Description:
heterodimer, A: 110 residues, little secondary structure, two-stranded antiparallel sheet, 3 strands, elongated, B: alpha/beta, five-stranded mixed β-sheet, 29 strands, 34% helix, globular, disordered N terminus, disordered C terminus
Amino acid sequence: MATNSIVRLIAPSRSASSRFLEPVSRFLSSGTPPPPQAPSPNQDLNRNVKPDQNLQQNQQMQKEEEEEEEGEGGGGGEFVNEDTGEIGGPRGPEPTRYGDWEQRGRCSDF
Amino acid sequence: MAAHVSAGNIHNFYLAGQVYRGQAYPNFGFTNPFKEPSWSSGVFKALKADRCGCYSRGVSAITESSKPCTSIRAVSVSSSTKYYDFTVIGSGVAGLRYALEVAKQGTVAVITKDEPHESNTNYAQGGVSAVLCPLDSVESHMQDTMVAGAHLCDEETVRVVCTEGPERIRELIAMGASFDHGEDGNLHLAREGGHSHRRIVHAADMTGREIERALLEAVLNDPNISVFKHHFAIDLLTSQDCLNTVCHGVDTLNIKTNEVVRFISKVTLLASGGAGHIYPSTTNPLVATGDGMAMAHRAQAVISNMEFVQFHPTALADEGLPIKPQTARENAFLITEAVRGDGGILYNLGMERFMPVYDERAELAPRDVVARSIDDQLKKRNEKYVLLDISHKARDKILAHFPNIASECLKHGLDITRQPIPVVPAAHYMCGGVRAGLQGETNVLGLFVAGEVACTGLHGANRLASNSLLEALVFARRAVQPSTELMKRTRLDVSASEKWTRPVVATARLLGDEVISKITALTKEVRRELQEVMWKYVGIVRSTIRLTTAERKIAELEAKWETFLFEHGWEQTVVALEACEMRNLFCCAKLVVSSALARHESRGLHYMTDFPFVEESKRIPTIILPSSPTTASWSSRRLQNISSSSLIDC
Lengths: 110, 650
């Protein structure tokens, strides 16, 4: 895993870049306003949350999670994002689609 | 320039205890006063001769010599004093990166107050920004950084960081850090808010943890590096050398054994991170009590831009949950912007939708506008949280998009598909800190800084997403060469280690069981009160009246706390973990308030209702000079005094 990315550092291109145009008068504000459209829903690999066992609405998700592979990153057999080609990355919508870095609702960076 | 240490204004510059705003130069951004190490510049030497008529060393356990000096073998004269070429305070990305490099030249002690991985780095989940795509450019990254920083950034610092970032990432990868990549083998780069290009390198959603893991593994395998965990840094050891303050190491408290351990070193790197716990709600782990900023201030280092505290607008407010968590949550749970992006609406507790009053974009306004609006509502209505309601959206979509929020809330009795989510802003990052030059040097000889504790000029008035790990990496690396050069020409006087009085651990034997327990209880309560004052009066929306109120209340609170301690047998040199953290929190809180009072404009993260606009003439950093040593409070004075027999008249 450590050896694979040194030589070529060209990122795959994405069409999402047009969403992040800065408004003109943002001298006083530092954030980018979120785009109006909502992304399509997708099942996410649960790394962080242990869902409440009693919740019916979470059982569906839980079954699917158990079928998925867990991993800390690196190695084969990982989730490959079909849209981005990213290996071992987050499932579901692009974490930065609204500017911050989110996973399943929790923001971890902004 | 305000902060220049140059002949002619050195006397004006060195006004003890003052918060210095300085004059503006037209069309001039921030210039770095530490382009050359000020202690070695010819100008400075001439000044010293003028000022004190001598060129002696004063008290010095360290003498500079023209011959290269030998490296210290890690020898302990006694277990309570240790000698190293380099001491690193903090085990986050900055500290560890630096340690690995300087370990090639000499012995290194890494001091950390908890487990080594317990740092803000570990919780930095998003990514590291760097120009790694051929369609991207250093200029673009610079531009994004400067815009985010409301043009208060130091351009040269920004250029250096954006230029050197990619190389630092490559080194991390070579050290074994594992970042996400595409099927073609290239790094997968994400694009975060404020960035014009895809440039965020990440490891799933735990980049900080992955970097920390890789660095820690290398550190633990390095025979030249000794890690001292559960060692709390108390105060830096310094001496005065005519106009110079020189750092000789640091006193620490071994929390496990309750013993003081003194580290004497030729070079010290402060990489102790942030100070989120001056506020009641913060994303920072418990260790982030501003220890480094406080120690540096007490050691006569210049502090800068402390008013720029970054908050996240919508952290889960435990107070609003039907079932409160049994223990206080250590790190705030941040609710993503995606909730608002997907249609979430903000209400105050009167169920009024307030965002349209503040901005026509309502909930889709930029994050800092939302943060200000929420803060304003909370202060006006004297309430503890507001509500973010997504329950009007389809249940299955809510659960699909935000399962983390759903389950966390449900654990505490709240169903987000039916009820609004209680949210409150949380402190996240300190853009200001110990003023650093381009090599991480400070105005204290032998003291370098890197990471969140430093104010390098990169972030300006607001940090761009994912630039903090980058800053830490770049500056940790840049501090290596000057550190090594200084180390090589420094000779250590081992016998000088007792020139400073030793801290004394507060024990039941010293003070009595009952006193210890009363002090512990009071300290806990005082911490909570300080946090409340900071949130209420030094939050996101500020005003001169609120800030001066804060100043007064903090002074009263500090006096009340110190009086209690000292009336119950505490003395100047007595130490305990909670009390030392408390004095650091007081120190940082006061630095934030003073800085905020000094900036009579609104810029970036600092917003003042009585100065609501950006003022071009005020586009300069806020500088806090060292306090006069006669200042009364315990939080402002170093514990250790130099024994009078060691003083030489200057």
